[in-house]
Amino acid sequence: MTGRKAGNLFVMKLKKFGGTEQKVYDMIYPVVTELGYLVWDVRYEKEGASWYLRIFIDSETDTISIQDCEKVTAPVSDLLDEKDPIPQGYILEVSSPGLEAELVRESHFDACLGCEVRARGFRNFENGSRELIGILKAWDKDGVTLQTEQEQEVTLPFSALAFVKLYFAFD
After folding, report:
1. Domain holding 46: CATH number?
2. 74 lies in which domain range?
3. In percent, how much of the chain has pLDDT > 70?
4. pLDDT in tens, 55-103
5. Disulfide-capable partner of 40 in 26, 56, 136, 140 (CB 3.0 to 4.6 Å)?
6. What is the dihedral of CA 92, 97, 99, 105, to 10 degrees?
7. DSSP-assigned letter for residue 160
8. What does the DSSP assignment read for 9-73?
9. Is the CB of residue 118 less than 8 Å from the CB of residue 106?
10. What is the pTM of this model?
């Protein structure tokens, strides 16, 4: 996964970062980029009784390894400890967005134009399937346009989509 850069957050409906996520993003961005990585996403989420600060990193030139995550974790953790932008306790996780990374930011869609993606709907699409796989041809604030295997261009509104992810065919 290469060439993806961070931007404004949207999860199938354009929306901005949460306040904590934006604060953390702004704080860690210079550190992560100085180390040679891209900030793919920042998520601050509660699971059960615990809060998680998840930082997803990527590279324009290579895949992300565990060593890359370790290289970023120490300075980011030190910075977060020093600046203390989050009042309650949380668990810090630094990882790759994965082979089938979810596209959640405007810049993800920009960088992934021409890539194969999988779009899942909340309901079945006109072809009777809940998922479509195709080349991401275009996107705007309202939805995405995919070119399917049958060479058809299909426009899907974000309001009908559960997610759009990069598609990797596991053989």
Report:
1. 3.30.300.70
2. 19-95
3. 90
4. 999 998 889 999 999 999 999 999 999 999 999 999 999 999 998 999 9
5. 56
6. 160
7. G
8. BBSSSB-PPPHHHHHHHHHHHHHHHHTT-EEEEEEEEEETTEEEEEEEEE-SSS---HHHHHHHH
9. no
10. 0.77
